[in-house]
Amino acid sequence: MRTTFEEQLNSLHLRFSEMGMMASEAIMKSVKAYVDHDKSLANEVISNDHYINKREMDLEKESFEMIALQQPVTSDLRMIVTVLKASSDLERMGDHAASIAQETIRVKGETRSPEIEKLIAEMGDKGTSIVEDALEAYLKRDSKMAEEVARRDMDIHIESNKINELSIKAMQEDGEYVLSGSSYMLVASYLERVGDYATNICEWVVYLNTGHVVELDGKHITSDEDMDEN
Amino acid sequence: MRTTFEEQLNSLHLRFSEMGMMASEAIMKSVKAYVDHDKSLANEVISNDHYINKREMDLEKESFEMIALQQPVTSDLRMIVTVLKASSDLERMGDHAASIAQETIRVKGETRSPEIEKLIAEMGDKGTSIVEDALEAYLKRDSKMAEEVARRDMDIHIESNKINELSIKAMQEDGEYVLSGSSYMLVASYLERVGDYATNICEWVVYLNTGHVVELDGKHITSDEDMDEN
Prior knowledge:
Distance between the termini of chain A: 44 Å
Number of strands of chain A: 2
Keywords (chains A, B): Cytoplasm, Phosphate transport, Transport
Pfam families (chains A, B): PhoU
Order of helices and strands of chain A: HHHHHHHEE
Largest sheet of chain A: 2 strands, antiparallel
Radius of gyration of chain A: 19 Å
Helix content of chain A: over 70%
Subcellular location (chains A, B): Cytoplasm
Number of domains of chain A: 1
CATH class of chain A: Mainly Alpha
Strand content of chain A: under 5%
CATH superfamily of chain A: Phosphate transport system protein phou homolog 2, domain 2
Structural class of chain A: mainly alpha
GO biological process, one term (chains A, B): intracellular phosphate ion homeostasis
InterPro entries (chains A, B): PhoU (IPR028366), PhoU-like_sf (IPR038078), PhoU_dom (IPR026022)
Oligomer: homodimer
């Protein structure tokens, strides 16, 4: 009976990681589609998003059944709760990838700025690598790595500010850039959220190891014990 | 012992609803700050966001302890899992309210379009009312109401498209509108997400009642039994 539960837990763990890879691949592809103006790749991302949503549903169901039937405690329960919560972050990454893919289709054929698209490609690389490393920290249960990865989220915010500034400048100088420029700003805001969700995954890694819910937002680290509420 | 558990469950339920009201108030205030160009109200929203984050942490902790110590099954467990998952949606609403508040500060003093800001105010009202009604459906455990509320999310998307079109037009016609116009588009995208999160809450209401995970996205309703994955 115990072995079965451990097998189930292991499978849950792997299926969650797999979902993470699906999300990270979706982001990577959506940014590639966007900067390559590749409508067919964008459509692929959009139509594959339901696999990510479906996986979240499956993980919810499996987690629920494991809790109900096996009544796990402490670290086992903590792992299941982590999968339950963190799968929302992965699902939202998938949503944002789909939104970026939708932007690809919306701005296809408009005047573009290669300079800003280069920055978006870089931001996409950074975003994808933060997601991948957050997942690696999860697999290794490495809190230190998780904290380091979360700190890199700051770079994403800096990149986003740069894209916003350049987009605004381009749009102000030439109305031809309004459609693409406003799209760049939206895409940058989506990638910023992706970084935030990756940070959440990092927070879950710390929780898995310590049982403490922490906030790692690149600027400061607070724990549930540092804060007081009415 | 049993009574104590029921009291705990009831308290969890109420504290979740309270968190929903905090999120809905944050959205309402952030949009008000934005359209009234009210920097001090915007700062209030930003500095209050940590109460929403803190509440999510508390609910996680309480849910975890209730599962570990009381080992609930079926509908009680379902309720706790709902709070665990849906509190993420509320937390993200709070984040988006804070982002709207930040936009208030960023575009303060720039050339504005009263016409588009009127639409944003309307979109904010619709968003807030969807959130409130989703919470009411949750409190009443009313699946039918939840499905109706989720359908209203379509109006939010329509409103967002209108704001995007007008913003692009204004920016193309006059470079003076680039800063505000791009901000309008971001704010509309944040409010769109708020609608998505409210839809998620509606999905949780259906789950609470039926045990089935469904997708209510305004266009179609699918359940976990309709979909097949490899």
